[in-house]
Design goal:
The protein has helices at residues 28-38, 53-65, 109-115, 132-139, 154-160, 176-187, 227-240, 245-259; strands at 5-8, 12-16, 23-26, 43-46, 48-50, 73-75, 79-86, 92-100, 120-124, 143-149, 166-170, 193-197, 203-207, 210-214. The protein is of the alpha/beta class. The protein has one domain (5-259): Ribokinase (UDP-N-acetylmuramoyl-L-alanine:D-glutamate ligase, 3-Layer(aba) Sandwich). The chain is built from 8 helices and 14 strands. The strands form 3 sheets. Strands 4-1-9-10-11-12-13-14 form an 8-stranded mixed sheet, with helices on both faces. It has a 4-stranded mixed sheet with strand order 3-2-7-8.
Length: 278
């Protein structure tokens, strides 16, 4: 039986510099899969890992959560590594990002067949430029969301938005009014709803003629890494359960706050490998 939700895109090892000095499994698409799985969803993850110790660590961590990994490709090369520094207040800084085997990933025909049986598919900005498969899924009545991350590639937005249930974007230091202007512009490209996360300023959303602002929740922050992915997972989970956008964004906000309370994008054991870091 097919899973009711899938995520497609990147995974990586998040390597924290001293004094944290730990490595954890992460990556936008896999983080969202983990968040949805923690809500009890049956989740398929579609992506690629390298044939290295890091790839095996990614698969082990995802399998421990019960994520369906049947459509993950193990390919020659290095699994992605993101080098992370934690600053004051748990603010994460990406020092270096090496996407590795996740870079410009495109799902196989077999994976697309599996995705066509899902109720919802979420993709991330690491995917290859050809998004025709997203249009095909939407045409088959699959609800599709996509995380454009930062609003740089307007051509990709114009191509994908007409097929999206939700377009997600991020302006980490943005003001709610700036976020709303961006959300309206992206929604005008055809997305049914657009949500822009703003870091400490919360998030804004637009659907139809309605504009929404959700303030962030105040928490004692350990690590902000993965908070945006947790937000996406909480929002998608709520929409799948029948919530309206305002309710879903509130659920996403709660998940993002929870993610800030622990090290790493989702609760997992530190990995230990003999792999030489790039």
């Amino acid at each position: 039986m097919s899973a009711d939700v899938a995520t497609v895109g990147d995974n990586c090892i998040d390597r924290y510099l001293p004094p944290v000095d730990r490595s954890l499994v992460g990556g936008n698409a896999l983080n969202v899969a983990a968040g949805l799985r923690c809500h009890g969803r049956e989740v398929v993850y579609v992506g690629a890992v390298g044939d290295d110790d890091h790839g095996r660590a990614v698969l082990d961590a995802a399998a421990a959560l019960g994520i369906d990994l049947e459509q993950v490709r193990v390919v020659p090369g290095r699994t992605g590594v993101t080098t992370v520094r934690l600053g004051p207040g748990g603010e994460r800084e990406f020092v270096e990002e090496m996407l590795g085997t996740s870079e410009n990933f495109v799902p196989s025909a077999a994976a697309l067949e599996r995705l066509a049986g899902c109720a919802w598919v979420h993709g991330t900005a690491s995917l290859g430029v050809d998004g025709s498969w997203i249009a095909d899924l939407a045409a088959d009545s699959v609800r599709v969301s996509y995380d454009f991350s930062h609003p740089h590639d307007r051509s990709r937005m114009a191509a994908l938005c007409p097929h999206l249930e939700v377009a997600f974007l991020s302006l980490p230091a943005g003001h709610p009014q700036t976020g709303l202007e961006l959300a309206r512009a992206v929604s005008a490209l055809g997305a049914r709803a657009t949500v822009v996360t703003l870091g400490a300023a919360g998030s804004v959303g637009v659907t139809g003629g309605t504009s929404i602002h959700q303030p962030a929740l105040e928490v004692e922050t350990v690590d902000t890494l993965g908070a945006g992915d947790a937000y996406v997972a909480g929002t998608v989970n709520a929409l799948l359960a029948g919530a309206d956008l305002d309710q879903a964004m509130s659920a996403g906000t709660a998940d993002a706050a929870s993610a800030c309370r622990h090290l790493g994008a989702w609760p997992s054991q530190p990995i230990s490998t003999d792999e030489e870091m790039p």
